[in-house]
Structure formats: structure tokens, C-alpha cells
Design goal:
With 135 residues, the protein is an alpha+beta fold. The protein has two helices and six strands.
Length: 135
């Protein structure tokens, strides 16, 4: 099984299109009054059977709530949404994880690209530095 290690750092950089990186993050900020309805075709999320999704979600949630995983100082706000995307060995598509910051803590909410765009805008983004463990 492919799992994320306890060493994760969310780094900033000069990359214009982070989605082309192997591992990336995007922080989406809630915008009061924004109510964009985005229509699109539903596509089933990518699923790699060798990835332990539950363990990865637990590991990421623990790391996010234990301390600052960002490589810069950031003031998080309620309703911030964090998208984390990883490509494990052999993956052609990203494995996506989604978290919401509320009342000083991160919560696992899954990643729903279209609905996130309704009330949020991309705020910060960058590369994820991490190691993988194979069980």
C-alpha cells in the first residue's frame, strides 16, 4: 500500500500551473457574497487501489492540526479549503484530498472541485515536499 509519511511540507514557489507538479497544494479562501454556479460534467475521481486513502487522510489531518506544515507564515481563516494532490509511483492522475479550516482546526471534507469554486477563490498554492512509505 502507498501511504504518505509524517514528513510533509507545503512550499511556495514561482510555478504558474501547480497542477503539472507531481505533488501540489492549493489554499482556497472563502469570499463573502461570492455565489458562482459552476456547471460541469461529473467525472469519477481517480482511485489507485494500492493507495491507503483512509490512512493518508488520517495522517494528513494529524499533520495539519499538529503544527504549521507551510514553509511560510500564514493566517488561516474559517472556511479556508485546502486541496492536497499527490501522484504515487505509477499514477497518471492525482490522488486528491480536501480539508476545511474551522474554529482553529482542520477537518477532512473531501475534495469537490466544482462546489469549492462557488464560494471560494484560489489564495495560495505551491509544491508539496513529502516522502512515501510502501507497506
Amino acid at each position: 500500500m502507498c501511504t504518505i509519511s509524517n514528513k510533509v511540507k507545503l512550499c511556495t514557489g514561482n510555478t504558474k500551473d501547480v497542477t503539472k507538479l507531481k505533488n501540489y497544494w492549493i489554499l482556497n479562501r472563502f469570499v463573502k457574497g461570492k455565489s458562482d454556479i459552476v456547471l460541469g460534467e461529473v467525472i469519477m475521481p481517480y482511485f489507485n487501489p494500492s493507495v491507503d486513502v483512509g490512512l493518508n487522510e488520517d495522517t494528513l489531518l494529524k499533520l495539519l492540526n499538529e503544527g504549521n506544515v507551510f514553509d511560510f507564515d500564514i493566517e488561516l481563516k474559517d472556511k479556508d479549503l485546502l486541496h492536497l494532490a499527490f501522484k504515487f509511483n505509477g499514477d497518471e492522475q492525482h490522488n486528491n484530498y480536501g480539508f476545511e479550516f474551522k474554529k482553529g482546526k482542520w477537518k477532512n471534507v473531501g475534495h469537490d472541485f466544482l462546489t469549492w469554486m462557488w464560494h471560494h477563490e484560489e489564495y495560495k498554492y505551491g509544491k508539496i515536499k513529502t516522502e512515501y512509505k510502501n507497506k
